[in-house]
Amino acid sequence: MGEEKVSGHRLRFAVIGDPIAHSRSPELHEAAYRALGIEHASYERVHVPRGEFACFARDILPLYDGVSVTMPHKAHAHELAVAHGAHAELQIANTLLPIGSGRKRRYVAFNTDVAGIQGALYSAGISGIESATLLGSGATALSLAVALHEAGCKRFTLLARSRQKLTALESLLTSRGVHVRVGDWDHPARSFDADIVASALALEGAKTAACRVLDHLDEVARVPSAFFDALYFPDPTPLARVRMALADRMDCATAPAFATGAHMLAHQAARQVELMCGVEAAPAEGMYEAVFGVGI
After folding, report:
1. What is the dihedral of CA 109, 114, 119, 120, to 10 degrees?
2. Which tens digits make up the pLDDT trace of 174-196?
């Protein structure tokens, strides 16, 4: 274990977002503290309503030694910072750490979602993927696109309810020299001809897409070798149900590999613990098992 930050000082951290009550981040961070023997750190949930990030940053953020940032505040967190970690080109951040103190306090922003997705893929044994069908167009979709590209994907099919909202994702992937096409949201099954189908959809959108695929399984040309779902509830997630239905229909000897949102959450939280507490390696898999249990 590396040397802990600010020895003797009680560290206070939080996760912010709207909504926030569902967040499992406190349990994950606290599991890491227990495993690492960190006794001088606490972590809590703070509800910051949409549109109130600026007030939070001025009045409450200085009370903390760092915060995790969830939707809808990731772009605002990036904008607040005076320095950024890897993948700053995404212009979204899920971690803010202070530098300086008092009126001179400023913030460094990090995106640990990309690392979280890469950790989830590794945990599921997913590698050698060259093509991807990506569902969603928000902040998580941007991180997911980068993680998949860095994992070897060179061809992407994008699916989202709003064609217009895919502009940022298309621009990002095009700038990386990736081949991109936009699929038909009304017929998502026709776009499942990829090595991996990866979803960054919120629950309602995921339910809609899953129902359309399940109603037209005959339109799926082949079973993808892997699936990724940023959701970790309900269990099974809508995409997990599609995965099993396709495996049954195609009479697969084994179901395609599946990387879960729970593993993503654990791995991105582990990276946050490393940044926040100054430790060399947080136990991502131990954090996952402590909070979600094995075999989720």
Report:
1. 130
2. 999 999 999 999 999 999 999 99
**H-type helices in the chain, by residue range?**
25-36, 53-59, 74-80, 113-123, 139-150, 167-175, 203-214, 238-249, 261-277, 284-292
Tens digit of pLDDT for each residue in 226-247?
999 999 889 899 999 999 999 9
At a CB cut-off of 8 Å and minimum separation 6, what does 288 contact?
28, 123, 262, 263, 266, 267
Residue 72, preceding peptide bond in cis (omega within 30° of 0): yes
Question: Is residue 38 within 8 Å of residue 102, measured between CB atoms?
Answer: no
What confidence tens digit (pLDDT) does each residue in 116-173 have?
A: 999 999 999 999 999 999 999 999 999 999 999 999 999 999 999 999 999 999 999 9
- Token pair 């654990």: residue: 266
Residue 207 annotated among the catalytic residues of the structure? no
**pLDDT tens across 69-89, in order?**
999 999 999 999 999 999 999
Distance between CA atoms of residues 21 and 29, nearest Å: 16
Of 74, 104, 165, 207, which residue is the catalytic one? 74
Rounded alpha-carbon distances, angstroms, from residue 289 to 68, 141, 232: 21, 25, 14
Q: Are 185 and 159 in contact (CB under 8 A)?
A: yes
- Which tokens hold the place of 129? 């993927």
Q: For the chain, how many residues are written?
A: 296
The pTM of this model reads 0.91
**Amino acid at the residue 231:** L
